[in-house]
Specification:
Number of strands: 0
Distance between the termini: 42 Å
Number of domains: 1
Helix content: over 70%
Family: Belongs to the complex I subunit 1 family.
Enzyme class: translocase
Order of helices and strands: HHHHHHHHHHHH
Subcellular location: Cell membrane; Membrane
Protein name: NADH-quinone oxidoreductase subunit H
Shape: globular
Organism: Streptomyces pacificus
């Protein structure tokens, strides 16, 4: 009974984090973009530093009419936002934020494979939305999403495999237990490949070809309004939290602090995740969108070879240096 209660409390805590952190990232993106681009509008809602901007956005979405196109596949159209959002909740359940099994919602032995597989499911939400909308621009955006997933799933998996090789386990807890700070110099390429491929899977700039407003209006989400559209935005911000959390756990030591400073525990995980989330926002503000051919070329001629080279280097280190 106590074990069941413990698991229930951990899952409840993960759910609370899932509801709060993506909203914090969304609010932060408003503020960071406002400062970097000189757009001070988000600084006024609610007075001091625009603290009510998030509330204003929520009220705006709830007031908008919920429209379903007459020619759309209604059931698939309505289900797509949930399919896009829920996989990130499942991934968050498996990410450890501190030492021991009590700091993770559910312990998954093959955690690396689980989180990468479930993250790929989220893309189905975009495919469902584009196909069910009965809109050619939406369908084109969905097809771009599929092509992007196929291109960037492989380097992301290979990069994660390199750190799993270094740790000798595919368990996220096991990787953190085995982590050594001297891994950073020779795993940095894998970390960059994983992070860039993750941005592409989330369709974040400069990889936002599936939602290129200058070409296909807003891609798979063109026909969505109100709360259903807000759920797709929430899925994007939840994806940022998950990507940054996974990068922290796999490549940055998770709850391990630098220079032996382990006392902060799970706060180290949150701090590293927050810094990476800021980098994601910074990239959005400062990077122009890639062309479709550039996007595919980056994946197949740069990221995949780099990920394979990282695996080869990891094999050499495991045999020659690391016992």
């Amino acid at each position: 009974m106590n074990d069941a209660l413990d698991v229930a409390l951990r899952l409840l805590a993960v759910f609370a984090v899932f509801l709060v952190l993506p909203l914090v990232v969304g609010q932060t993106e408003h503020k960071v973009m406002a400062h970097m681009q000189g757009r001070v509008g988000p600084m006024y809602a609610g007075g001091f530093h625009g603290w009510a901007q998030l509330v204003a956005d929520g009220v705006k979405f709830t007031q908008k009419e919920d429209v379903v196109p007459a020619a759309a596949d209604r059931r698939v159209f309505q289900l797509a936002p949930a399919v896009a959002l829920l996989p990130y909740l499942l991934v968050l359940v498996a990410i450890p934020i501190g030492p021991g099994e009590g700091a993770v919602g559910v312990v998954v032995d093959a955690g690396v494979f689980f989180v990468l597989a479930v993250m790929g499911v989220g893309v189905l939400g975009s495919l469902m939305a584009g196909w069910a909308s009965a809109n050619k621009f939406s369908l084109l955006g969905a097809l771009r999403t599929a092509a992007q997933l196929l291109a960037y799933e492989l380097p992301m998996l290979l990069a994660a495999a390199s750190v799993a090789m270094a740790a000798g386990t595919v368990s996220l807890l096991g990787i953190l237990d085995a982590f050594e700070w001297w891994w950073l110099p020779w795993q940095i390429v894998g970390a960059l490949v994983f992070f860039v491929a993750g941005l592409a899977e989330l369709q974040r700039p400069p990889f936002d070809m599936p939602v290129a407003d200058s070409e296909i209006i807003f891609g798979a989400y063109t026909e969505y309004t109100g709360l259903r559209f807000a759920l797709f935005l929430l899925a994007e911000y939840a994806g940022i939290v998950v990507l940054c959390g996974l990068t922290t756990v796999l490549f940055l030591g998770g709850w391990h602090g630098p220079f032996g400073a382990e006392g902060l525990g799970w706060l180290w995980t949150l701090l590293k995740t927050a810094v990476l989330a800021f980098v994601v926002i910074w990239i959005r503000v400062s990077s122009p969108r890639l062309r479709e051919d550039q996007l595919q070329r980056l994946a197949w001629t740069a990221l995949v070879p780099l990920a394979l080279a990282q695996i080869a280097l990891t094999g050499v280190v495991k045999v020659v240096i690391q016992p």
